[in-house]
Amino acid sequence: MSTRTKLGAAILLALGLGFSTAQAQSATIQALATVLAPITVSGARDLDFGSVFPGVNKTIGVTAATSGRFDATGTPLANVNISFTLPATLVSGANNLTINTWTGCWNPTANSAAVACTAFTPSGSTTAVSFGAAGNLWVFVGATVAPTAGQATGSYSASVQMTLAYF
Amino acid sequence: MPRRLPRRFAGLLLLSTFVATQPSAAQITVAGVRDLSFGSVTRGIPASISPSDVVNSGQWNIGVAALRTIRLTFTLPTNLTGPGGATLPITFGNSDAWRKETLALGAGTFFNPNNPVTFLVLLGPTVTVRLGGLVSPSVSQVAGSYQGTVILTVLLL
Q: Which residues of B touch A17 (CB under 8 A)?
């Protein structure tokens, strides 16, 4: 075999090595999504101060039988922010009754403010909580009303609103 | 005094250099770097992820030498699978894929992942590919975690 022939063969071999037939490589990733159950929430019990007297503050704690309670359901164990629209006064016609010093606790496992209920301060700011393993959440609220010495008699009321949002 | 190489040896030397600098097929690598994550979605509300999302878009890294032509082909799911075999539709739009050579300047190139795309890698040694998409949960979508497989196949031409 001549030198020229050998050189030609070497070139062909080299080209064959350098430009081999097309070759494919693959890699896999996952596409992931979590579908959340819609949140339901209901006002289950009114925050009721009962009868109060002029000049005498009255507090209802979260564990009281007349504390306010919201019942919510959602995706089990999902995180959720709760926030409140709270009144500064209860209203009876043209008369106002101051309400303040809000207290709260949330319980993802039982409808109880007395056991395993986590305390927080209700406000317009968000508080991070979570649904329980069964997708439940109970939220209890209390507060203090402060009737003045000259507080007009009558029935006073106002709305307390709780908002929940997944995060 | 340096000796002058015979011409036939000089030719072989050039050929050796040429071969050594050309990438072989084995030099191409593809690695899945990040899952395409839609996170939490709500019934009845479509949710999309852009390929520009550097946190939630899917990502692959391709290792390939400069001046090689490659073809990207995606194997895309039409549904993600969830609890009890429930399905969640997933679609990919015209600009839901993006590629960029790591060393290249500029913003990269968006493309349609539903069709193969062929291009010349100018610089190498790495090309980043990202993928977005759209999931469309129905109003009665079963709650829970959904998953589907996305494959990127890179053909070295």
A: 19, 24
Cα Dmax for chain B: 87
Q: By the CB < 8 Å criterion, does A29 face chain B?
A: yes
Angle, vertex CA A86, rays to CA A81 and CA A87, nearest 5: 175
**Mutation to test the B interface, candidates A5, A6, A15, A25, most B Cβ within 10 Å:** A25
3-class state of residue A62 by DSSP: coil
Cis peptide before B125 (omega within 30 of 0): yes
Say what the ipTM of the complex is: 0.83
- Read off the pTM: 0.67
Calculate the alpha carbon distances from B81 to A76, B38, B116, B146 in Å: 19, 14, 25, 5
What confidence tens digit (pLDDT) does each residue in B39-50 have?
999 889 999 999
What whole-number distance in Å separates Cα of residue B155 and Cα of residue B111?
A: 17
